[in-house]
Amino acid sequence: MPSRILLQLDTDPHPSSFDSVVAIDSGVDHLLQYGNVQAESVTSLVHGAMFTRGGEDLSQTAIFIGGSNVHTAEELMKSVSKVFFGPVRVSVMLDANGCNTTAAAAVVAASRHISLRNATALVLGGTGPVGQRVAQLLALDGAKVTLTSRTQTKADSVCAEIQNRVQDAPNLTGMTSETLLSDPHFLNQQQIIIACGAAGVELLNEDQIQKLSNLSVAIDLNAVPPAGLGGIGVADKAKPIASGVGYGAIGVGGLKMKTHRAAIASLFNSNDQALDAVEIYKIAKDIG
Question: pTM of the full predicted structure?
Answer without folding.
Answer: 0.96
